[in-house]
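Justification of computing resources. Each target in the renewal requires a structure prediction run like the one illustrated here; the chain below, 175 residues long, is used simply to show the kind of job we budget for.
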Amino acid sequence: MKILMSTLVLLLLIALPALAQKGHPKEPYTGSKEFEQLKMLKGSWKGEMPMPDTEKKQPITAEYRLTSNDSAIVETLFPGTPQEMVSIYHDRNGELIMTHYCALGNQPIMTLKKSEPNKIVLDYSRLNPRNLIKEPHMHSLSITLKDNKNIKHEWAYYEEGKRANATVIELTRTK
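Resulting structure tokens:
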């Protein structure tokens, strides 16, 4: 019995890595043209953004990384701070979609509204829960890919169901 059990454990240890790989793609994911554009953001970025109700600017850092066999992009704004926010970009049914995990404590979902050669516009999605539209939330995002080293974010913030303000963030690649 002991030999049989040892043999079964040995076979399992040999077969487990092969079983774990079965069904996993060997090639990195290739997505929609907009998703592939955003993959180019991989790396670290820094910039400035206007502070609310003042003319001062606040420094901001951003990090982009690929995960899940390159099928999702993780954007982290203000990494390592209490204001840290994460957005996850991925394709759903061949279209770019993003969930923004906001410092406001909600998670608005945005889907592709339009794209141009160097600009991607995401807007509030019907996939959001009905009550979110009444909460303060980020409603849309426009990302302009100026060149390989410079991008611009334009976030639209909504309160009580209507646009309250917009925040423009200019970022430059640091690595």
